[in-house]
Amino acid sequence: MTSSDTTGAVVEFRSVSYSVPALPAPILDGLELDVRQGETLVLLGESGCGKTTTLRLVNRLLVPTAGEVLVEGDATTEWDVIRLRRRTGYVIQEAGLFPHFTVERNVALVPALEGWEASRVKERVRELLKLVGLEPEKFAARYPRELSGGQRQRVGVARALAAEPPLLLLDEPFGALDPLTRAGLQREFQDLMTRLSKTSIFVTHDVREALMLGTRIGLMQAGRLVLLATPDEFLHSTHEYARAYVETLQL
Ligand SMILES: Nc1ncnc2c1ncn2[C@@H]1O[C@H](COP(=O)(O)OP(=O)(O)OP(=O)(O)O)[C@@H](O)[C@H]1O
Ligand SMILES: [Mg+2]
After folding, report:
1. Fold classified for 4-249
2. What are phi and psi of 171, to 5 degrees?
3. Ligand 1 atom showing the smallest separation from residue 45 Cα
4. Contact predicate 60/13, CB 8 Å
5. Which atom of ligand 1 lies at the shortest distance from residue 22's CA?
6. N or C: which end of the chain has fewer CB within 10 A?
7. Where are the domains of the chain?
8. Nearest to 162 by CA among 214, 100, 98, 105
9. What is the pTM assigned to this prediction?
10. Ligand in nearest proximity to the CA of 204
């Protein structure tokens, strides 16, 4: 770590904008944000506001068109991209599993790339499948097409955790789950984050989930960060857009 030692931030967005030539307005506009060591920073906002784009800038699937994103003190453009990706477990929206790999091989992907011993990889896969509520005996040998949408998402979460990356990027990881399974996984996630003191950026459009899991909530609207608040501050915010979200809780 370099400058992050002084700021305590694992990820820093410095005046970040992202534009594409096809669109008149930038997709992200002047984003300023620090994600601190050990916190779960939730990005909350409506469909199309730029949440996924923000995540993709962190592991350099995208590069800012203005400003910079720093990870552990270094701009993403300065990082060796392979190293950066292995330090950031990424749960993509829709899980993004390799269809021709079994569940076991999907989860084992990064540990195998990291050269872990086969027995250790196998043990780790078992441990993770159990953690996300999938019996290894039943699911390890299946292919993604043989799973339900929610099961695929859980495999996606297991895969992102597999090599114990210090930074997690989670894009609506529990989106396709029924409320009970979802609540169970949210609790486990919360427990895991405290136990392992990982840093994460967690994307959701569900205000309940944001309030439950976030140490801070970044509210996004049309490519801008309009509010950054703790759950308690968020609940009592006078910001109009935050209030609109809070009002949905009373329904
Ligand atoms: N390569 C691209 N070219 C043109 N428009 C794009 C491109 N990538 C993203 N967009 C647009 O940028 C906006 C932000 O997209 P993004 O995927 O970040 O939204 P999101 O907040 O993750 O939405 P959702 O909740 O639906 O997943 C959207 O309006 C999208 O259509
Ligand atoms: Mg998205």
Report:
1. Rossmann fold (3.40.50)
2. -105, 95
3. 21
4. no
5. 4
6. C
7. 4-249
8. 105
9. 0.89
10. 1
